[in-house]
Amino acid sequence: LATAILPVSSAFAKYVQVGAPIDDPTKKLGPGPGKLGKRSPFEQPLKKPSDISSRTPLQDLYSTITPADLHFERHHAGVPTIDPAKYELLIHGMVDKPMKFTLHDLKRFPSVTRTCFLECAGNFRSGSEQLTPQDILGLTSQSEWTGIMLSTLLREVGVQPKASWFLAEGGDAAVMTRSIPVSKAWDDAMIVYAQNGEAIRPEQGYPARLLLPGWEGNMNIKWLRRLEFADEPWFTREETSKYTYPVKDRIRYFSFEMDARSIITYPVFPQKVERGWIEIRGIAWSGRGKVLKVEVSTDAGKSWNTANLQEPVLSKAHTYFRYLWYWNGDATEIASRVIDETGYTQPTLKQLAEARGTAIGGYHMNPITAWQIRPDGSVLFYPEKV
Amino acid sequence: LATAILPVSSAFAKYVQVGAPIDDPTKKLGPGPGKLGKRSPFEQPLKKPSDISSRTPLQDLYSTITPADLHFERHHAGVPTIDPAKYELLIHGMVDKPMKFTLHDLKRFPSVTRTCFLECAGNFRSGSEQLTPQDILGLTSQSEWTGIMLSTLLREVGVQPKASWFLAEGGDAAVMTRSIPVSKAWDDAMIVYAQNGEAIRPEQGYPARLLLPGWEGNMNIKWLRRLEFADEPWFTREETSKYTYPVKDRIRYFSFEMDARSIITYPVFPQKVERGWIEIRGIAWSGRGKVLKVEVSTDAGKSWNTANLQEPVLSKAHTYFRYLWYWNGDATEIASRVIDETGYTQPTLKQLAEARGTAIGGYHMNPITAWQIRPDGSVLFYPEKV
Amino acid sequence: SSLADTTKWPPHFGFGHAATEQEIKLWDIDIRPDGLGLPSGSGTVAQGKAVYVVKCAACHGMEGRELPGVKLPAPALVSDTLAGSRPKTIGNYWPYATTVFDYIRRTMPYNLPGSLNDNEVYSLTAYLLSANQIISPNTIINAQTLPAVVMPAKKLYVRDDRKGGKEVK
Amino acid sequence: SSLADTTKWPPHFGFGHAATEQEIKLWDIDIRPDGLGLPSGSGTVAQGKAVYVVKCAACHGMEGRELPGVKLPAPALVSDTLAGSRPKTIGNYWPYATTVFDYIRRTMPYNLPGSLNDNEVYSLTAYLLSANQIISPNTIINAQTLPAVVMPAKKLYVRDDRKGGKEVK
Ligand code: HEC
Ligand code: HEC
Ligand SMILES: [Ca+2]
Ligand SMILES: [Ca+2]
Ligand SMILES: [Ca+2]
Ligand SMILES: [Ca+2]
Ligand SMILES: [Ca+2]
Ligand SMILES: [Ca+2]
Ligand SMILES: [Co+2]
Ligand SMILES: [Co+2]
């Protein structure tokens, strides 16, 4: 049996000259294989940080996986540094056997992988024509998550029948807490320790976070350290002062599911288009299941056409859509709307304001987003007013 | 209409103290949101480079997406630095209209996304018990690729009916060339400019590469600059001196498809296992279509059990498998074998040697890979000899 | 034996370990609206004001009316009750007083989270409830009195009952 | 109009531009076994040896027998023909002589790819074919003679005919 073809190392490297780009790259040896790849110097996609969040550059992305280092951030007391050897998850309250699990313990259980979106419930901005998808709703990203079903741990600790809620608590300096119905734990909640094939990133909850597919980003507690089971919710600050919103003369609370939504990510501000064929592209998703259909209008909402959906269409996942359009050079507006498998159609801002009153604007805003195409090919956001 | 909830920036940052890890991360503010995320300092997956290639750390990965910076590398004259503004793809030969396409041109065509594996046809190593999956077959990785169907460009240039082959040529200093049947172009070949949601990485062919799902990695020409259509193959150096192999007293050439293959990635050397339940995990794939089934043996090949496949199972894609096993502490060997949708079963090394003779070892080696479990829980590779 | 059919799950995998009483006590810091979880101790509005000035005013303002986007990304802490001004503050937006205790204890002061003792937290809670004109300045706040405080916004809270489907609501 | 059903593809999208003769010529460097693509010019074994010593021997050895893993990751360039030793070299493994020209011209010398002129490449090809005992030392190699060289390994080449299915082959 001959040995493998690739020698590990040799004195050969010293013969090789490497260097900067030249006009004809076929005439110049490039740098050799490395331990970690890096982006082309010509490509620098970046998140846009504020004091409390950082937005995914949706307009720079193709398809639906968000590179881990571009995943949106929203945290309330910064990103903790957690030593995986010291990490433990406590489960207690209405359970037969209160237990603690190390990261190693968690990784030993039967595992599962799921690709789904996360979205901050406050993902909405408007007010200027010069906004990009990143500015408007960059607080959503998608990853392939791997971990264990939360139900696997519920079996292990023996959750008692009268437990109807659980509190999930983070190990960050906000000691973030949210109340979650136990039914979600038996349905599709996960504790995940991996993202896009590798260990979860610190900004997304290293070494382990809660994943509640389709539900408010904030509930997917990062740096998860404790689950307490009980028969009542807690009404923590993040489910009262925050993540509630005025609906006419009332305050609506416990809006867990993220409503169906879509956005065109090409062409958008500040790109320019040329007359001729344009493939309109974007992402659509619903916290309530699969995207059934995406419709695109190229005549300012007068008519709607069915876009193509990129397969596989996954439940509670960003779904890429594409619609081929011939632009004749006239001024117009383009927009997308999603219909999810429950039959819900993404509403206009006007519809939302009619349903909820004009004081809307904080959370769970999912209006149709339109873009103006000018005759010179420039593309601008269309900021609506109620 | 209230404005969005998240202020862009404020004088607030100066109040926030950030710092190094402390024992109780709930007592210390962490660093705030950033422009680019980074790995936890406790996680440092790395490729293993030689002079000519670099191997993906399969044992450090969960599920099937390979983070772009850990994608295996194999190049023949280093990684060129290509300015996307100067990039052009030439298509000529037996076509009605020889054409050049800029990167911008390519991105305007109707696009498509596909998740599939790439594997170097020389992906095989043996010879020591102390090899990891990375050492043994780290020359395979998987990405979500976005670009255009090659057939879209064939329509554009008008490929002539008598053209049966095309030459794909790279713009690197190896000016890498391979001959490819035109039927693959009409089937599923793509020209891709994006990988895992973002621009393709330099090591994988920035700004555009050929993607031939399921076919030898080397044929998926990176830094693609030219396609020439003709009625004969070229017999370039990479399809004669390389990527051919002795089969008994003959030399076999044009082995395009990668044969079905699998490897256990947990538990493997140098990990240790504990008595009790173990979820055996790994990846399986076939260049000829979908993985139909993966079987795992925990008794040194005497009996085989069906593993669970992670959905969605995609064609010509790494498919994650899991098999739950109770280890009673006895010495044994564990192994996996894949059956693909053509009915092909991954062979043993002995079967391969019987079919091809004992001078095998260079290319297209896909034998079953086994791991020894010692009573002390240590795991070692089982290097077979013909 | 290792040959057994192992694809069926056992009742328990046996990974992890029992949590001790002490391990639970150390982390079990949550407070419920019914008062479950509140520690012993108590606080007054006057004590709360004194602590506030030293440990909180720098960020939230001497009057607790510092607004988001200026010095910090947080709503004002103090406002008139429902009848009055609009910011979503404790006074006109929070449904339960217990949440004030829970939140302050787990995460304030922002720059030194977890540094307050229980009496300080009771006092600060008393002070903020009083500044928001919900309790009188001489109320003593403890595990019995806090859950009994009725918050003006409570009656406005309506649970989301949407379940998908055609309706925009 | 922008209202038309645009989901059907047009015969052509109109992106890209016609390639000029000159643009094609600049990049059209491939050589086929039938000689298609070979440039004018020619070379001799003696000239080839002279160039080899200066531009190639540092890596491949004075005799062209440098092995992979020592100085460089490449097979030896020179060996006896089929009857002789085993390394997969030009002499006993390559099926077409045109590939030698094509490969050297596009990528050697490794550190200065694309730096040789066509006569140098013809000469080096002649030298390596002669060193491998495939042509006699006084053969002149050009666009006519090169495709006519019969390589000893050619007869061993068998195209892979596997198509999946049960058989291990
Ligand atoms: C270094 C700045 C800083 C200091 C000092 C500080 N806070 Fe805060 N406070 C904040 C920030 C920032 C937030 C918003 C945090 C968030 O939304 O995640 C906040 C939020 C709050 C809230 C929630 C407001 C709401 O309506 O949701 C309360 C209550 C509060 N602080 C009380 C206090 C008390 C009491 C103290 C002193 C013991 C204090 N803070 C000290 C910065 C500070
Ligand atoms: C700086 C080192 C270096 C120099 C100088 C060099 N080579 Fe090479 N040569 C290599 C390497 C490395 C390879 C293998 C490249 C690969 O596999 O991608 C190679 C491969 C070859 C091969 C293919 C061998 C095979 O069997 O596949 C030929 C032929 C060759 N060189 C000829 C030449 C000639 C002729 C020259 C001089 C004009 C030359 N080389 C100069 C390093 C060098
Ligand atoms: Ca959120
Ligand atoms: Ca390869
Ligand atoms: Ca145990
Ligand atoms: Ca509790
Ligand atoms: Ca054009
Ligand atoms: Ca040609
Ligand atoms: Co413990
Ligand atoms: Co041009």
**Main sheet specs of chain A:** 5 strands, mixed
Q: Which class best fits the helix and strand makeup of chain A?
A: mainly beta
Number of strands of chain A: 24
Which hetero ligands occur in this complex? heme C, calcium ion, cobalt (II) ion
Overall tally of domains of chain A? 2
Main sheet of chain C: which strands, in order across?
2-3
Task: Write up what this structure looks like.
The complex is a heterotetramer, with two copies of chain A (386 residues) and two copies of chain C (169 residues). By secondary structure, chain A is mostly beta strands. Chain A has two domains: 48-238, Oxidoreductase, molybdopterin-binding domain (Sulfite Oxidase, Chain A, domain 2); 261-382, Immunoglobulin-like (Sandwich). Chain A is 9% helix and 32% strand. Chain A has a five-stranded mixed beta sheet with strand order 5-4-13-8-9. Chain A is globular and about 70 Å long. Helices cover 32% and strands 7% of the residues of chain C. Chain C is mainly alpha-helical and 169 residues long. Chain C is globular. In chain C, helix 5 crosses helix 6. Chain C has a two-stranded antiparallel ribbon with strand order 2-3. Chain C is built from seven helices and four strands. Chains in contact: A-B, A-C, A-D, B-C, B-D. At the A-B interface, strand 1, strand 3, strand 11, strand 17 and strand 21 of A face strand 1, strand 3, strand 11, strand 17 and strand 21 of B. Strand 5 (99-102) of chain B pairs antiparallel with strand 1 of chain D. Bound molecules: heme C (2 copies), calcium ion (CA) (6 copies) and cobalt (II) ion (2 copies).
